[in-house]
Design a protein that fits this description.
299 residues; binds magnesium ion; binds adenosine-5'-diphosphate; 10 helices; globular
């Protein structure tokens, strides 16, 4: 790929060549421990239903490095949420091995190694916004003063400082989702599991949240596994994009995003030719699969 700008230094793609490895690999000291955030080996998931077996995932092998941002993209029903649920220990593989930070998913869940933000905000309607965000801290008995400061910081981060005393049903869907994201970040987890978290947001809020999420990840070093239907969203956010194909869900291709380091990305990238090149690469991979790529947004 040629650099499109006269001055490569100042372009969003300028630093890309040597910067496509996962951030964590780049940052890790020689000989330092680098246990994968997620390590899935030959994972299969079969659901038994009244109308027979549903083979949701087949031979899925995937490693996510600490601090790495990996998106899963693919048509509806290809097993993205199923894979997330296995990582989050909400279900278990039929066969194959799955570890999270070198532990069983169950152990990682009990150790609070990750925060979760799924499509439905899942807020407690009887608690205020501030009390929803502070819930994980309260459960872990963080001192009240510390909790208050952290909740204020999180609400500021998601642009909801003025709504701390509101109840969830007084907020729009998008605002509720931002509360859920703030809650997922409350304990500065080593990993975030996000299943279409921005699906309900308007386009402008969505772009702001994407940039915000990258900033938060750069700040906290958290790994992210992110499910989306949006190709541009996957490209903008990720170090690598995992393209899945349906029936049974398999990994069709894993594409390295040859872009600026994800901690350096800003809105300028959305107008950079390297960004469009990566969108094309992901789109072609999805369409290469078959007509099965229906249901994936290209906007
Ligand atoms: N608990 C379940 N019982 C039976 N089938 C399920 C269950 N969960 C998911 N499936 C099926 O597994 C497949 C993958 O679903 P899912 O992971 O939700 O896909 P995606 O998130 O990619 O849209 C679908 O065919 C779905 O109907
Ligand atoms: Mg899903």
């Amino acid at each position: 790929m040629t650099d499109p700008t006269p001055n490569g230094e100042s372009s969003a793609s300028g630093a890309k060549a040597a910067e496509t490895r996962p951030r964590a690999e780049r940052g890790s000291p020689a000989g330092g421990t680098n246990t994968a955030a997620v390590d899935a080996a030959h994972v299969d998931k079969v659901f038994a239903t009244s109308s027979g077996e549903v083979h949701a995932l087949s031979d899925v092998s995937l490693t996510v490095a600490p601090g790495e941002f990996v998106s899963l993209i693919g048509p509806s029903g290809c097993g993205k949420s199923t894979l997330m649920r296995l990582i989050a220990d909400l279900d278990s593989p039929s066969t194959g091995e799955l570890s999270v930070f070198g532990k069983t998913p169950d152990r990682a869940r009990r150790d609070q190694d990750y925060g979760i933000a799924f499509q439905k905000a899942g807020l407690l309607p009887w608690r205020t916004v501030a009390d929803n965000v502070g819930l994980p801290l309260q459960l872990h008995k963080a001192p009240a003063s510390q909790r208050k400061a952290r909740v204020a910081e999180l609400l500021e981060m998601v642009g909801l400082s003025d709504f701390s005393g509101h109840y969830p049903d007084q907020l729009s869907g998008g605002m509720q989702q931002r509360v859920a994201i703030a809650r997922a970040l409350a304990e500065k987890p080593r990993m975030l599991l996000m299943d279409e978290p921005f699906g309900a947001l308007d386009e402008m809020t969505r772009e702001r949240m994407q940039t915000e999420l990258l900033r938060i990840c750069a700040e906290t070093g958290a790994a992210v596994v992110f499910v989306t239907h949006s190709i541009p969203e996957a490209v903008y956010l990720s170090d690598r994009v995992v393209v899945m194909s349906p029936r049974p869900g398999r990994i069709a291709e894993v594409i390295d995003m040859e872009l600026a380091d994800s901690s350096q990305r800003s809105d300028a990238l959305r107008e950079d030719s390297s960004y469009f090149d990566m969108i094309t690469a992901v789109r072609e991979s999805l369409h290469g699969g078959s007509s099965a790529s229906r249901g994936v947004e290209t906007r």
